[in-house]
Design goal:
The structure is a homodimer. Chain A contains twelve helices and 17 strands. Chain A folds into two domains: about 130 residues, translation initiation factor eif-2b, domain 1 (Four Helix Bundle (Hemerythrin (Met), subunit A)), CATH 1.20.120; about 200 residues, Rossmann fold. By secondary structure, chain A is α/β, with parallel strands linked by helices. The interface between A and B is large, with 52 and 52 residues. Strand 14 of chain A pairs parallel with strand 6 of chain B.
């Protein structure tokens, strides 16, 4: 199993929309297919879409016909814009595109730029896996032997180059001999928890219990859940976190029940240019994601529907933000400055 | 449209499992079919299952063959037990059965008991509709013109004899000229909000927006939702409320965001014999309700799954309990004693 793979002249992507019933990999030779793959959530997860964009841009460079450097740069910048327009909330997408753009800007030889873009895309991928492992090492100390840990959405191998952020911390704790049982919220509307987290964890023989999003409070109040750990799509300068819709709810419930709430993410998720959570754009996706579950229509016609894909968890609800560069405990008092400088 | 109807020698029940795509009514001549209808959630909602049980017991009496009074009573008590075993959490079921049992105990003429049981079942039904209207009158003052009101599950006409408890308050506010917009949580796993509340409200031209359960916090934090109102399956002596799974979560979120949280229910939902929420039995239903949405399987095999159908909201989160006999504001300080005595 892998999330995404670079083949030299194509990109292979696991179609996460078909999981867990089918494990299908699609190989794309055109950058537009990779951009569509991000847009339509064939691949998803903040770090993974950063990797996909980097690989998509490297792929595009191979097919740009121009032999004139300024034309080439113009065309590549246009393609970077296409990737920037695929999804608005996760900042990893923009940081990966930023790295690719820097190479385009600085270069003065087309074939050299093409090689450097390929190298950079692979670096984005490789660094993400290494970052996940480091996040695991930095975070595992917060989980105790015997803990039942709630997670939301999928911040696992499927959301990253591999290993995972929130699930990476859980994997690292288990690797050092701790027994951890995961409660996975199904994560409506797109069901990343039900479809992806349960699939990924059970493949690794990590015990996982599926619950609906509406059950997390019940299992916190009744003392079952001991910790909460989630990923992030963007972390503002003040420590506010944008993550999958429903995250804020779990955070409030955790605080109310005296349960630690952790956010695990690579530093590419930190956005010092965004002052607070209020400044993070929240993607509103198609209402069909709410009304249709595959082919089943679950609501009548002629009603209003909302489908914000993310919400903002203010820093005050967060016990610690765990990154590969270190941990910020109580981000409400300190913000993320410590991690940005390092 | 109606939820349940007595036909003299049969009971007609709207099959709520097929809504909103199909509006199918089934007519049953045998009490066992009515009991199954409660068990398998063809009909649901605490007040409605009380009515269904009363009608089912009246129906059973018509078909009990015995001409010997003690045999008849024994057989009827056995049938009452069958209804008591259909669902464990809603106390209206047991209060309706209790009313029927009292008639059976006191009676000494079989044909007279049969007539009285029919009359009592119709009284349970009629009183419920009247109670809902009175709940509406007592509760509408808490909703303001222009309010966006969140509700969970379906505490509407479909959950009662008609009109509804939580939705009855909304209907009553609208009837006195207030503009109310309802946010309906879809209410996983059984989707009563998506399937029933949206259907029922849009038939009455009450504007309704469907959201997933995981979105309520987001729309509270961002100032959209102004009030929360839900029904109840059992209210303990200390004011703790058992209601559809997810209710506790909305209540915590409401408190955190300074939003009033109301519970609307008939006094048949009050259970002075249950000291606190900890003493309320919580039904755990089939895991298939979580894993299958109609014919679509949404999670892999070989994982654990939990499916508690209800949760407990401690009284401290409740702004007021609204009944047909009056309102208890701040039930955490006073309990429900005032309503029991009246």
């Amino acid at each position: 199993m892998f999330t995404i793979k670079w083949n030299g002249d194509s990109v292979t992507i696991l179609d996460q929309r078909l999981l867990p019933m089918q494990e299908v990999y699609n190989t794309y030779r055109h950058f537009r297919d990779v951009a569509d793959s991000i847009r339509n959530m064939e691949t998803r997860g903040a770090p993974a879409i950063g990797i996909a964009a980097a690989m998509g841009i490297a792929l595009a460079a191979l097919t740009v016909a121009s032999n004139e450097i300024e034309n080439f740069k113009e065309e590549m910048n246009r393609i970077c814009q296409i990737f920037a327009g695929t999804r608005p909330t996760a900042v990893n997408l923009f940081s990966a595109i930023g790295r690719m753009k820097k190479i385009i800007e600085k270069g003065n030889d087309i074939s050299q730029i093409k090689q450097q873009l390929e190298k950079e895309a692979l670096a984005v991928y490789q660094e993400d896996i290494e970052a996940n492992k480091a996040i695991g090492r930095n975070g595992r100390t917060y989980l105790n032997d015997g803990d039942v840990v709630l997670t939301h959405c999928n911040a696992g191998a499927l959301a990253t180059g591999g290993y995972g952020t929130a699930l990476g911390v859980i994997r690292a704790a288990i690797e050092e001999g701790k027994k951890i049982h995961v409660y996975a919220c199904e994560t409506r509307p797109y069901l990343q928890g039900a479809r992806l987290t349960t699939w990924e964890l059970s493949r690794d023989n990590i015990p996982v219990t599926l619950i609906t999003d509406s059950m997390s409070g019940h299992f916190m109040r009744t003392g079952i859940i001991k910790k909460v750990i989630v990923g992030a799509d963007r972390i503002a300068a003040n420590g506010d976190v944008a993550n999958k819709i429903g995250t804020y709810t779990h955070a409030v419930l955790a605080k109310e029940n005296g349960i630690p709430f952790y956010v695990a993410a690579p530093v590419s998720t930190l956005d010092p240019d965004t002052k607070s959570g209020n400044d993070i754009p929240i993607e509103e996706r198609s209402v069909d994601e709410v009304v249709f579950i595959r082919n089943e229509q679950i609501a009548p016609e002629g009603i209003f529907i909302r489908n914000p894909a993310f919400d903002v968890t203010p820093a005050k609800y967060i016990t610690a933000i765990i990154t590969e560069k270190g941990v910020v405990e109580n981000p409400a008092s300190s913000g993320i400055g410590k991690l940005i400088k390092s």
